[in-house]
Structure to design on (293 residues):
């Protein structure tokens, strides 16, 4: 028996088509969503993602600005740039690529981003709103995973979803979004005892541990849907997820490929959030105009 390989390209393509159409409709009303991406330092992998983000913006008609700052940029200078972007009406979304160099405090930087432009959903206010189910941006990677599950017709409500990894960027918000979809959610991490046994109970297994090909068939219940959030450069130079793809294919019901699914889906949700931010900024402007008349 062999699992279905989830067609990430097709899903990404159709969501982006939808976003492109909605951006087009906004433009007819004279509004163009805008995203600023800020990269500090010259980590080559980060540079690739930043390029991908700018290219993806172009493809759907979103205006973008990329700021490449030297690794030794003082924190104050970065905060000054964020202040400028916060006040810039052309910019609806601000993404500061993480991780930042050691001398910069990430929490201070995230706190400085205007909550309404925080398209990553990393700001504590947006994280809190997500937690209590209030309208906020959805964190890009977890939202992308939910979109993949929905578009593959995977039932989430009532199912047991196991998330491996508890980072603030993926694991924790992933658990929250699955809970919102009425899954029964378990979170595993480096201190989990009997992880294989726990993971084997999952109908939906989301893997975000950052260890190349760690999750093999011993962690997978026959027929489970396995979503691989990992992205690791292996010693042979190739990209691989956290899932041992060929091995898991033998037992799972469906598996996402790496590259080609969760990564581009993450960028797609970033575009979606930027569009949403532009809509809100415009609605705000409209009501402010009403208020002044
Ligand atoms: N503030 C912030 N927000 C982020 O969303 C953020 C970040 N910082 N720091 C870095 C990580 C990483 N990340 C990726 C997004 C897309 C791909 C992607 O499209 N990957 C392609 C492959 C790209 C390749 O070939 O290297 C794929 O999976 O098919 C990868 C990685 C967003 N991140
Ligand atoms: Mg972790």
């Amino acid at each position: 028996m062999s699992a279905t390989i989830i067609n990430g390209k097709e899903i990404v393509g159709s969501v982006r088509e939808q976003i492109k159409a909605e951006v087009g409709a906004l433009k007819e009303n004279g509004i163009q969503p805008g995203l600023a991406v800020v990269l500090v330092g010259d980590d080559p992998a980060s540079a690739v993602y930043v390029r991908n983000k700018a290219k993806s913006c172009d493809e759907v008609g979103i205006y973008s600005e990329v700021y490449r700052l030297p690794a030794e940029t003082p924190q104050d200078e970065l905060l000054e740039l964020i202040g400028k972007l916060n006040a810039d009406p052309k910019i609806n979304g601000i993404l500061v690529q993480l991780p930042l160099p050691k001398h910069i405090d990430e929490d201070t930087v995230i706190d400085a981003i205007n909550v309404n432009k925080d398209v990553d959903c990393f700001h504590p206010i947006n994280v809190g709103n997500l937690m209590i189910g209030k309208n906020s941006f959805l964190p890009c990677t977890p939202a992308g995973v939910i979109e993949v599950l929905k578009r593959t017709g995977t039932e989430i409500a009532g199912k047991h979803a196991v998330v491996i990894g508890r980072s603030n960027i993926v694991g924790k918000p992933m658990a929250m979004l699955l809970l919102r979809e009425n899954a029964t959610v378990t979170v595993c991490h480096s201190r989990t005892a009997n992880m294989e046994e726990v993971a084997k109970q999952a109908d939906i297994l989301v893997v975000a541990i950052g260890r190349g090909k760690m999750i093999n068939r011993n962690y997978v219940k026959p027929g489970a849907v396995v979503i691989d959030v990992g992205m690791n450069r292996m010693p042979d130079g190739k990209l691989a997820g956290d899932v041992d793809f060929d091995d898991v294919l033998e037992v799972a019901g469906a598996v996402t490929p790496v590259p080609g699914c969760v990564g581009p889906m993450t960028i797609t949700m970033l575009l979606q959030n930027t569009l949403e931010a532009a809509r809100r900024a415009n609605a705000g402007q409209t009501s402010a105009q009403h208020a002044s008349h």
Q: What stands out?
A: The longest strand covers residues 34-40.
